[in-house]
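Q: Entry one of two.
A:
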Amino acid sequence: MLRILSILFVLLGSQVMAQNEQEAVKKTIEDFFEGFHAQDSLLMKHEVSESVILQTIGKDETGNSIVKNQPFNEFLKSIVSIPATTKFKEVITNYSIKVDGPMANAWTDYEFMLNNEFHHCGVNSFQLVKDANKGWQIIYLIDTRRKEDCN
């Protein structure tokens, strides 16, 4: 009986640790978006690695899917330069987070609002690595964007 209780204790302990790591990953993403919405480049930079890669999947003029790269510094400049009269918000509607040791993946459905109106929706795919000093850091972000089939 003691052996069974010991096994259960270990299993429950690892489950709690995994949930704690998932919450830490989620907090990193939430903090990134807090900076995004506040147009705070320092807060956004704090949540990403120095070598972060940003990509988006779009369509070319013939409707074929293409992957577009965006340097992080250009992304920051574009966010910071949005006029104060423009209201924008990316609303995460769902999280699916997987963690394996120092690596995590977060798949987040979202809706993007511009001036309080729906603009587009899509999915973000975040890859994160846990740094011994900085904690969870976003190393890769790719997203999709569409105006239809958002439910």
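Q: Entry two of two.
A:
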Amino acid sequence: MRRALSLHRPGDWPADRARASITLAWADRHRRRLAMTDDSGGEFLLDLPEASLLAEGCGLRLSDGEWIAVRAAPEAVVDIACHDAESLIRIAWHIGNRHAPVQILEGGGLRIQDDHVLVGMVEQLGGHIVRHRAAFHAEGGAYAAGEHHHA
């Protein structure tokens, strides 16, 4: 079986040489060792030295020298906006207090995975929501050294 032995961040690998891609939802993109199937049905073993975030645009280097591009799958998300920064900060605090992953959007909004309990809370706090399908790229957190990425 083919083995993916190293992960390379966007811009640190020859993306034009990718022979395959793998499209994963947020919950499936933090891995170390797992049998996986690329988007064209090819099987490989993810065999990294440590658990890593497989972020959009990363490349997996296979033992045979081939590359697999990592893609973020569209999933059910909720974009959050507020009329003022204070309200948005309050909502961000409440989301963080529940240890829910959150993505900070360019332009000042937030994105969370679609969860009816969190959405209800956000609406009660005055947030305006838009439900749709998009890639989710949560913040890595204070202790996720080197794993701060944005789309």
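A: Comment on entry two: The chain has two domains: 2-72, 75-134. Residues 75-134 form a domain with the Alpha-Beta Plaits fold (CATH 3.30.70.790).
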